[in-house]
Protein 1
Amino acid sequence: PTPRFSGDLTVPFPLHDSLLSPRKEIYARQIPNKEGHKNMSRQQALSLFDYFPATKTLFDATLNIADELQHSKAINHTRLKALMTTSLGGSDAEGRWNWGEAHDTAEAALVYLLRNNWARLVGKKRTAVATVQSLMALETALPTRTRRAAETQQMQQFSTPAELAYIAAKAGQIKQGETVREPSCGTGLLAVMADHFGAKLQLNELSKSRAELVRGVFPKAKVTTLDAEHIDNDCEDEDETDVVLMNPPFSVSKNVTNKSQKTSFYHIRSALNSLGQGGRLVVITSDSFSPETWH
């Protein structure tokens, strides 16, 4: 049975150190570029933060949701809507955000917390089974995706469950310092598992809004917005990949209306071609796709 969220998500680190400071940094970079503030010093910009709490970016909403999660508060749809509306300065009805972005932002908040506080959320030196159980319980703190945006449906942007992402990363036998590529990284659930094992990340996400979230969560990672079906064409020689973790679209391609069962094959073929000597590939596919059908 799936473990349920028990309300015990307490992360004993100060809010101003973990979440508030990054949010102030984001605001400090934006304000001096606004008309009338070009000559404002960095310190003056920071001092204005309390008067302008909403930076109107998806990543700011991510930090607000992470703030609630770290204080042992599960997020339901009503609360998610309120947090998105406050963070982005308007509601979904006003066109400031859609439900696909809302769910992506909530997932990115979980990824953000896992990346920065894995030991407190999941535990140190736990067995793989215990880690999977903890990740399953953490995911129940987020609302289910009962509402999907048109882009989510059209491009089959279906997230990888955290526990399955961990199992995939474990199967990849990732070593400290190895380069891991995620061709369709979504909100970073596979990427954060590779990060946990000490990998250097090369991330790609076609969706601009998801790429924005991933850049915020993984500020040092290389993030591109390319068509993953042809990711091997864009690999530089110095970007040799040790491991590819992927959960590609099952049957849709960029700028193609009709579905094709060959889509997974195209993504996997490109990923395989991007691997360096001795590289490993771990891929999550539908039941209808298997190595026996690749020919």
Protein 2
Amino acid sequence: VSNIVPDHPVRIKVNPWVTKDGPGRFKRRAPLPDSASGLPEITLDSEWGYLVGVFQGDGGFTPSGIAVCGLEADRVVTEVAGILERIGLSPRVRRRNSRGLVEVRAHSVAFTHFLLRLGLGTRAPPRGAPSRQLEVPDFIFRSPRDVVLSYLAGMLDTDGTVSKNDISLSSKSDELLRGIKLLLEGLGIQSTIHSWWHRTFKRRYYVLSLGRHASREFIRIVPLRCTRKRLRAIQVMRAWGPGRPVATEDIIVSVRADKKAEVFDLHVPDGHAYIAAGLVNHNCYEGQEEKLF
């Protein structure tokens, strides 16, 4: 169970997994134990954040576990295989084609159930693999900064693009990108989302774009593992020059009276301003409310 997200009732024991009746391997689609007293904890740390980001970017469920694809030169698959080994699984890496595409697979129904409990997928039909849930998991929003940064690194390493103009993330899920936009705003990084129609697949895709200033800040704080994309980002940022922050603003179209309600002033140290749920909040200095209102 995560000590970051206490309300997720999931505990597992690594190597061997623990079933409801005792030690051993889970049977196919066996339920997770309802009671987990006495079992060790798994902390959702930065490695888990990166694994979740990569999985949502270029991974998927199989009938017996999970699979993640990537280019061999990017080292993403190697990184994921190492994380799975440290969890206690036995991942297998194989080459998919001659262009350097490789795939890592880990066969464990118990691990699949664990990911489903974390909100990364929906239950499978009687015969088939679960489906990925393409939205930012709830525990990521409530995780420490290093976990959030590693999650964003996994997303960019797989579904991200570094162009001569900006850094962007693409997805078929608008909800996933809106969640990532909130995470970025919590880090002080502005972004925009637009969509386009894919004629071949006949469906709408979405793109989250960072401006040049936001791209600089993203590369500065997010620990990318993909060497190719990190080097590419450094090269294009040098070509951009020093750059400067870009201010964004929204126009207030109307103000109307609402019912009276009790309000609260939340104080934080050093500056009395904070970012939460994508909004910048500036509270009053103690003792100044009467003067302002």
Protein 3
Amino acid sequence: WLLFTLVRPLIWLLKVLPLTWALAAARLVADVSFRLGFLGEVPRQNLEYIFPEKSEQERRRIAWLANRSMFQMVVELVAYMNPKRKALDNMVIENLDAVAAAVARGRGILLVVAHSSNMVITGRAWTELGYEAQAVVKPLKGYYWNDLLLSCRAANGYGVISTKDADAVEQINAVIARGGAVGLFPDQNARQRGVVCDFLGQPASTYKGAAATYLELNPVLLVAVNSRPHSDHRHLLRVRVLDDIPLSGDREQDLLEVTTQINATMTEFLLLDPTAYMWAHRRWGRYRDGAWVAG
């Protein structure tokens, strides 16, 4: 509670500071934290696992820029609470015409976003385009921090469906039924509960929720990855409409097929700019080299 109270003045400051100043400060703090090893060994281990062919210097550069992006994401989460700021002023969206055509089908949208650069500004841009958006998220530990996160998301124009809500599935169904968009972030280690298929070239357990929603409701499926080509306030959002996924009618096989296509699209986008990914989270967990590792 005390730390939360002390952070309040900083939140006010980030909302009124020029965005370029606020993000410059974020990069400075990120660089200091990187030198101090704030994120531990997880980024290094992940990058060694995915890019063994790259030199240590190359992997370290990816980790450094990814760390910068993560700190800037936190600042943007607060900075874009200022209603005068527009995400679309600082974002280029690839394939926007195809996205607009997909939305016009009126089937509702399943927006599947990788843990990349800034997932939050992706939702903000979606609402600025005039579409309804709801993000499915896991609550943070600690009431005050979770309340702050909800306030930030609400100020950015989109709602939140908590994974802890007893009626979460019903809420998702309702949004898609009225033609809105539901944002999911399935690229997390689902352990034994997930579907195992390649992600960035290595087998990874992936949550089934996105594939299950697609199979049940038949929404338009969009896969998106956000990156910062210049490591600053400017964003590039790569989006692809996944059409005509071959389905067999066997639920388990179809869950695997849809998840595989989602992961493959994310992988393609992330390999264009590996610095966009959040290497600090344990994406592959203990599933290594095609098997669960004990411990």
Protein 4
Amino acid sequence: SEGATDVDLKDGHGTHVAGIIGAVADNGIGIVGVAPKVRLLPIHVLDSEGSGDSRDVARGIRYATDSGARVINLSLGGSVESTSLTSAVQYAVEKGVLVVAASGNGFADSAPKWPAASDLTLAVTSTDINNNVGLFAQRGEYIDIAAPGVSICSAISSYTDAAYTTIASVSFNNKTYDYAKFSGTSMSGPVVAGVCALILEANPWLSAAQVKQLIKETARTDNFTGVIPALGSPLWGMGKLNAYAAVQEALALVEVPENSLENAWNVYPNPVIELLHFTLVDELPKECTVVDAQG
């Protein structure tokens, strides 16, 4: 919500999801996110109870896409397909954005959740520490990948008003930061989204479709009960997320295109006046002041 003082639900769901993706490393506070160097763009599309209109979600997706996001995480879903929402996801995909969506917490017999049920998204289900699918996790042929989503510790907002137990409070610079364990495919989605960010950090020239394929092709199928068929399982999709293998495969695919700097730069807003940090392939980080991104 533009101009809002906060963009979270009262149970701290958004803060928890954001922390899983990109909590800062090496600051002596709390946890470290999957991709601690990522830039986050929180967008408020639901009310304080976690309910809302699919048209608002659609507007949020379009806003994120137009703002330059390369990965969109949707830790939400509904039981009915929405034309406006599907159109927005299609818009994002056509603009080269990878849309990651939680598959839903409706248990085994629940109808597919949207937009995860769309082939346009990377649909994520949950596993626990023992590689079991979470009891709450939905089943379905639409599921692409499984990732940790049971008792996941992350930050929660200090104004949290819910039946969740704070497991730790950390004081730093006269401020208190709270942490709690949540479970759900809402937690699994940001784990996958964070790994997608790591893949793009390793190889920024990959397309969204290539990142999606890497996530699926490098999935682990060991330590599961039964064998995952070639086309995937309604329980786990193509298997359990393998972050290390996916990033290593992305590095192996690095091929710097001609005019790579021109292709790699994507500056918002344009023009800008600010200090940019960037790294050239096989060189040390550089700094430059951009006065006009067009000139």
